[in-house]
Specification:
This protein is of the alpha+beta class. Helices cover about 20% and strands about 25% of the residues. It is built from 14 helices and 26 strands. It has helices at about 60-65, 75-80, 85-90, 95-105, 110-120, 120-125, 150-160, 235-240, 255-260, 270, 310-315, 330-335, 355-360, 390; strands at about 35-40, 50-55, 55-60, 125, 130-135, 140-145, 175, 185, 190, 195, 205-210, 215, 215-225, 240-250, 250-255, 275, 280, 290, 315-320, 320-325, 340-345, 370-375, 400, 405-410, 415-425, 430-440.
């Protein structure tokens, strides 16, 4: 149910835009969305802050130069001239909300601001087809969580049938520190990594290309604001540090992972590349799609006090549909459409983004603007909602049969993984996250 006390005129499902492509029923970027990103215009090196509207990008630099954001504080206007979203993320959610409100008045049909913007549309709008979409922020640190109990249970059962979940799982949001330098934007190629692998329980390991390359569909959680080193973020304040959400593909070399992960967890099996979607859907745009914390089974422990908050229990999750499809080289050559592998609902995660932030900072760790958190594989309870090939193919025991007769247990060279996300709810306009794509290439 939508909490109307927390929505405003920008969420009105009847709003339409003078940018016609934004009004299509299945458009990811209607005027009710207005996600932020960074991009380059054709033949220009300087990255710019942009806002997606239909199949166009609002160039915030040009719009600011034209006076469209003159009602905003100078610090906000300066952030809109930045080369990334870090400046806006540093200011926090309230200023991002103010930018979104001005953009809504510019891009919604009707009104003086919209008419003024429409007169300079050729200056402030760039077709997506003529823009290079980039990683949205300069990422200082990246942490990947393990927040789906359905994923953790299934994967654990493949390796430890008698005890699939570690004893700490239901007490703390488990995570590990990933590699920020190898995070790339949607569309960047994914080179198959090489690494040390040992098959069986005896003998020496060998080094070679991974034969167990996998994907993992996750929510990308972008951090706004900052806490000082040594200053934990209380759970009641942690939701305001969630600046927005995107999509994330945590590419994983399972055979490398299986050999290296004891005793300190993933290393080279994850750090070779991580793909993120280029658009960040703000927490304010997601307000109609809030959801309660997923119900815990009877007998599960309640979160400890530093992870428990009444507001977070009631509305700390997000009802985001997450879909994964595959397009192999053979399918592409035959003109076949991508094949859906799974679809899941992110609201089934065992831990909310606010709980992840509260736990992450509970030891005094400082999170900075533009830091990235991954939710961990967002799998649901049903077979159709398994969020990686390790789950779907059951560690190779049940290969996935694709149109045209191919089968997959893990990814092969030429395979393209396509992730999409969207939110739908009665009484609200559908909004989307765009795509998170990557095509596997041979290593070397």
């Amino acid at each position: 149910m939508i909490d109307r006390a927390r929505t405003d005129a920008t969420h009105d499902p009847s709003l339409r835009s003078w940018v016609d492509s934004a009004n299509a029923p299945q458009a990811d970027f209607p005027v009710q969305n207005l996600p932020f990103g960074t991009f380059r215009r054709e033949y220009e090196e300087r990255p710019r802050v942009g806002i997606a509207i239909g199949d166009q990008v609002l160039d915030c630099v040009e719009a600011a130069r034209a006076g469209c954001f003159d009602t905003l504080d100078p610090s906000v206007r300066d952030a809109l001239h930045g080369w990334s979203l870090n400046g806006l993320m540093a200011l926090g959610r309230e200023d991002a909300r103010a930018v979104r409100h001005v953009a809504s008045s510019m891009l919604a049909a009707g009104g003086a601001a919209a008419e003024a913007a429409r007169e300079i549309a050729d200056r402030i709008l760039v077709p997506v087809s003529q823009a290079s979409l980039l990683v949205p922020a300069e990422i200082g640190d990246y942490t990947d969580f393990y927040a789906s109990i359905h994923h953790a249970t299934r994967v654990g059962a493949l390796f430890r049938p008698d005890s699939p979940l570690p004893p700490n799982y239901k007490w703390i949001p488990i995570g590990y520190h990933g590699r920020a330098s190898s995070i790339v934007a949607s569309g960047a190629p994914v080179r198959r990594p090489s690494g040390q692998v040992r098959t069986g329980s005896e003998g020496s390991p060998v080094v070679g290309p991974s034969a167990g390359l996998d994907y993992e569909i996750e929510l990308a959680i972008w951090v706004g604001g900052e806490n000082a080193l040594g200053a934990p973020v209380p759970i009641a304040a942690a939701a305001d540090r969630v600046w927005g959400l995107g999509l994330l593909n945590d590419w994983s070399a399972r055979d490398i992972q299986g050999w290296e992960y004891q005793p300190l967890g993933p290393f080279l099996s994850k750090s070779f590349v991580t793909t993120v979607s280029p658009w960040v859907v703000t927490t304010d745009a997601l307000e109609p799609f809030r959801a309660p914390l997923a119900a815990r089974p009877e007998g599960d422990p309640a979160p400890l006090p530093y992870l428990d908050d009444a507001s977070d229990r009631a509305r700390g999750a997000f009802a985001v549909t997450l879909e994964v499809s595959i397009l192999t080289a053979t399918m592409r050559a035959a003109g076949l459409a991508p094949h859906r592998l799974s679809v899941a609902d992110a609201s089934t995660l065992y831990w909310t983004p606010a709980q992840m932030i509260a736990h992450h900072t509970s030891n005094g760790c400082n999170l900075r603007p533009g830091d990235l958190l991954g939710s961990g594989t967002a799998s649901g309870p049903g077979d159709e909602s398994r969020g990686c090939l390790l789950e779907i193919a059951r560690r190779g025991a049940a290969p996935v049969v694709l149109p045209g007769g191919e089968a997959r247990t893990f990814l092969q060279d030429g395979d393209e993984v396509i992730m999409r996300g969207w939110c739908e709810r009665d009484g609200a306009r559908r909004i989307g996250f765009g795509e998170c794509r990557g095509t596997v290439r041979a290593g070397g």
